[in-house]
């Protein structure tokens, strides 16, 4: 790169040296050299030509002292701090240098996919747009669903080696200032080399990293974020990630789905109760079955006990091992289904369900009742909408299974005590995880196990 | 530590009911049947309730004179450093005995009905470890835990009552006052102690905040009353289903009563599991209450902040719970425990209140 007459530009070029994608152009306007610096791959070259270069070349003598400020650009900003320079340029901005002043214009044009329906979160009714990998587009999506003056963003850049733009969003007035402070503090305290995705941020800002349960919601739906902000929660947008984090999360809120609000309250509440019940079953059922079979045969109704013992005839392994075997098989199948390309995914489940299950029973390795129990528990776990929570419950199931294998119903009860004590202790951004059940908040029950009807003003939270 | 500043009225009631109902509900019917030997034995529960209500007022009076202080702090304030220390050690011993007793009876029942081949020490150890996990984080967690499981336990009990209702033979409950009112007074010495757990107020005074004594009194009467109602219902049911003579023979009549429920066509034919689970929850809550009381005592008397101390406390309870060789021996100790409780819950508070009144000492505003 050739030397220029300006030390400022030389310095700048040195800072970005070795990066051959940086373009430096100089234009002489009214006998004054003006330098334009941008990165070709992430800046909109057409835009630069049309709105920066062309006007500069056509520039006539104007009244304003600065040439650059005469350009027809709407978001031209002067850079005051030198540490901003690199951040701007890697965000796709174009730098324009005139004398000792550096101006930055947003000319970014990253390659992005279009807005699509999120794959992981399906709803039956309501908006189908999903976040994409651009912070700016995501914010515009959110603004479309939430048109209010109160929506506030605080921006951060995180990362030592490569930086990521992170934005904390909240509604002024709705969100608790303490909560905002806490989220901002935790985001600001992140000290790491590189943030590839929201999941990393999630793990860096949570306090109980040894807990199974997620401390924030992760969503790809703008409507969900809009609802959360209205409820007074705080969202964290991460540039380059379609997942937006919502804090705080409680066990109750993790069970909710946007569909709950889109249908009439009685069926919606029924479905919600069903979901809680299914989650409970998915964690407890295999363990309960094991404890009844191997410890408390006397508690099984006589007829059922007979038919169970008949189906277990010839099964060579103890029922706990049998359950463990089936559970691991199910988990393997599920993992395989997730990792495989879409067209092959269903094939795996067919092979798993029909061929493996059927053959295992026929071969006498597992009892058919065990297959029913494990399969039903697995299906129940699919009703949990939040993937973080569903992972937690899947892991818990093994814990329950183990305690039931050691101490039967007693062990199961002790294990549930341990889990509940853990949940009681757990806090997500100072919000008790089991709110509104323990601590008991009577007023918040309207949107917990049931979803009580909206009042005429459309609100529910009072 | 805990973030709980002040108990609400509802929390107060839930905590005390959870602390009170425990082992009593499972062994009281038999001992009461032995003592009263009349079908109107449930009347004794009412007398016990009235008596204990009066004694609880002493504790309320004492506690409201020293807001935000536990028994262990109050005793030192009133009687000075050395006598206070002595009182505290006695009280700690009392909580040790009672918690070990609850633990032993509970694990005895678990061993009897659920896990007949598992070693007793494993059953006791598991219970103790989980309870340790609960209490180490302070009063707030305990209250929340009680609150969370209270509906579960109530649901189990109510379900059990409704299911067993059709098996009740009303003739087993008659006659009332058949042998006069005197025999039912005999039962007081049994029923009185089934309300043990209310003295938890001496420990939980820490989180009572600025609750007015009148509200506290009302809270105590309500929780004692509800507990009495639950006891009466269970006694009436076990008496109605099993009859007086059978009641005297069986070690754990309430479990037998749950066992006897026949409800064909339902998946669970056997309902004792429902009862045992519900009851295990109450046993856990009342044990945790005493365990917490003991731990608080140790911490405040010996002025230690270390959480490792809790394992020492646990070791003591573990040893004490394993000390008796069999269930019969455990029941022999129960009379001793009753004497100890009488001293700890009546004599100590009354004495302290008296001295406090004489010295006109009060921290209440």
UniProtKB/TrEMBL annotation, chain A:
- GO cellular-component terms in the record? plasma membrane
Q: Biological process GO annotation list?
A: spore germination
Provide an example Pfam family for this protein: GerA
Keyword Transmembrane helix assigned: yes
UniProt keywords (A-Z) are:
Membrane, Transmembrane, Transmembrane helix
Q: Which residues cross the membrane?
A: 273-295, 345-363, 369-389, 401-424
Where does the protein end up? Answer: Cell membrane; Membrane
Main localization of the protein described in the UniProt heading: membrane
Q: How does it sit in the membrane?
A: Multi-pass membrane protein
Do you know which InterPro entries this protein is assigned to? Spore_Ger (IPR004995), UPF0353/GerABKA_families (IPR050768)
Q: Which family does it belong to?
A: Belongs to the GerABKA family.
Its recorded name reads Spore germination protein
Q: Which species does this protein come from?
A: Halobacillus mangrovi
TrEMBL record, chain B:
Which keywords does this chain's UniProt record carry?
Germination, Membrane, Transmembrane, Transmembrane helix, Transport
> What's in the GO CC field?
membrane
- Which superkingdom, per the lineage? Bacteria
Q: Which Pfam families match?
A: Spore_permease
Please give the start and end residues of each transmembrane region.
12-29, 41-63, 83-103, 118-136, 148-165, 185-208, 220-244, 273-294, 306-324, 336-358
| Coiled-coil parts of chain | none
User: Where, per UniProt, does this protein localize?
Assistant: Membrane
**Record's bilayer topology term:** Multi-pass membrane protein
GO annotations under biological process? spore germination
- Give the family from UniProt: Belongs to the amino acid-polyamine-organocation (APC) superfamily. Spore germination protein (SGP) (TC 2.A.3.9) family.
Q: What is the name of this protein? A: Uncharacterized protein
Q: What taxonomic ancestry is recorded? A: Bacteria, Bacillati, Bacillota, Bacilli, Bacillales
């Amino acid at each position: 790169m050739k030397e220029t007459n300006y030390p400022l530009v030389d310095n700048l070029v040195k800072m970005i040296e070795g990066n051959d994608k940086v373009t430096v152009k100089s234009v002489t306007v009214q006998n004054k050299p003006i330098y334009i610096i941008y990165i070709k791959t992430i800046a909109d070259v057409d835009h630069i030509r049309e709105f920066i270069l062309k006007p500069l070349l056509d520039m006539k003598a104007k009244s304003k002292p600065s040439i650059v400020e005469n350009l027809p650009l709407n978001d031209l900003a002067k850079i005051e701090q030198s540490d901003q320079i690199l951040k701007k340029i890697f965000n796709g901005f174009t730098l324009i240098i005139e004398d000792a002043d550096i101006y930055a214009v947003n000319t970014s044009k990253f390659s992005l996919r279009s807005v699509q329906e999120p794959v992981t979160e399906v709803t039956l009714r309501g908006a189908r747009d999903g976040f994409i990998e651009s912070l700016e587009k995501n914010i515009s999506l959110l603004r479309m669903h939430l048109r209010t003056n109160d929506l506030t963003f605080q921006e951060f850049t995180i990362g030592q080696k490569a930086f990521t733009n992170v934005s904390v969003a909240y509604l002024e007035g709705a969100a608790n200032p303490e909560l905002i402070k806490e989220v901002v503090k935790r985001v600001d305290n992140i000290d790491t080399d590189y943030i590839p995705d929201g999941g990393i941020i999630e793990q860096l800002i949570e306090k109980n990293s040894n807990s199974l349960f997620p401390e924030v919601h992760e969503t790809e739906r703008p409507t969900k974020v809009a609802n959360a902000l209205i409820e007074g929660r705080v969202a964290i947008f991460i540039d380059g990630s379609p997942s937006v984090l919502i804090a705080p999360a409680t066990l109750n809120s993790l069970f909710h789905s946007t569909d709950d609000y889109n249908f009439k309250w009685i069926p919606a509440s029924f479905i919600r109760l069903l979901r809680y019940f299914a989650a409970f079953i998915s964690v407890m059922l295999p363990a309960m079955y094991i404890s009844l079979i191997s410890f408390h045969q006397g508690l099984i109704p006589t007829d059922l006990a007979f038919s169970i013992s008949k189906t277990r005839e010839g099964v060579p392994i103890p029922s706990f091992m049998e359950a463990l075997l089936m559970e691991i098989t199910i988990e393997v199948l599920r993992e395989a289904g997730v990792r495989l390309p879409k067209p092959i995914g269903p094939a795996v489940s067919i092979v798993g369900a029909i061929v493996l299950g059927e053959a295992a029973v026929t071969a006498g390795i597992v009892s058919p009742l065990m297959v029913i129990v494990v399969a039903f528990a697995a299906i129940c776990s699919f009703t949990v909408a939040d993937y973080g929570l569903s992972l937690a419950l899947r892991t818990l199931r093994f814990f329950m299974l183990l305690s039931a294998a050691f101490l039967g119903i007693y062990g199961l009860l002790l294990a549930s005590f341990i889990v509940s004590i853990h949940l009681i202790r757990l806090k997500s951004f100072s919000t008790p995880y089991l709110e509104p059940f323990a601590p008991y908040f009577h007023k918040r029950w309207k949107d917990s196990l049931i979803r009580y009807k909206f009042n005429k003003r459309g609100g529910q939270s009072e | 530590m805990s973030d709980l500043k002040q108990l609400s009225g509802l929390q107060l009631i839930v905590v005390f009911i959870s602390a009170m109902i425990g082992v009593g509900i499972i062994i009281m019917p038999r001992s009461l049947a032995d003592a009263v030997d009349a079908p109107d034995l449930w009347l004794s529960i009412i007398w016990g309730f009235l008596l204990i209500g009066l004694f609880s007022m002493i504790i309320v009076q004492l506690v409201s004179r020293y807001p935000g202080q536990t028994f262990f702090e109050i005793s030192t304030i009133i009687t000075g450093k050395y006598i206070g220390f002595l009182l505290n050690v006695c009280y700690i011993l009392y909580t040790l005995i009672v918690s070990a007793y609850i633990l032993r009876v509970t694990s005895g029942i678990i061993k009897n009905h659920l896990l007949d081949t598992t070693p007793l020490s494993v059953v006791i150890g598991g219970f103790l470890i989980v309870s340790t996990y609960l209490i180490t984080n302070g009063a707030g967690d305990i209250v929340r835990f009680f609150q969370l499981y209270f509906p579960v336990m109530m649901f189990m009990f109510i379900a059990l009552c409704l299911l067993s209702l059709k098996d009740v033979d009303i003739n087993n409950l008659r006659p009332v006052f058949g042998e006069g009112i005197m025999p039912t007074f005999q039962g007081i010495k049994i029923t009185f102690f089934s309300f043990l757990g209310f003295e938890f107020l001496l420990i939980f005074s820490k989180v009572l905040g600025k609750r007015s004594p009148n509200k506290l009194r009302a809270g105590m009467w309500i929780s004692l009353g509800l507990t009495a109602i639950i006891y009466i219902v269970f006694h009436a049911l076990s008496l109605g289903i099993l009859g007086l003579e059978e009641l005297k023979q069986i070690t754990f009549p309430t479990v037998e009563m749950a066992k006897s429920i026949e409800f064909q066509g339902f998946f669970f034919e056997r309902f004792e599991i429902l009862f045992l689970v519900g009851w295990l929850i109450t046993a856990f809550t009342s044990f945790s209450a005493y365990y917490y009381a003991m731990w608080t005592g140790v911490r405040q008397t010996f002025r230690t902040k270390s959480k490792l101390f809790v394992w020492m406390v646990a070791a003591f309870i573990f040893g004490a719970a394993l000390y008796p060789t069999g269930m019969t021996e455990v029941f022999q100790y129960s009379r001793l425990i009753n004497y100890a409780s009488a001293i700890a819950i009546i004599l100590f508070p009354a004495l302290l209140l008296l001295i406090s009144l004489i010295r006109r000492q009060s921290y209440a505003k």
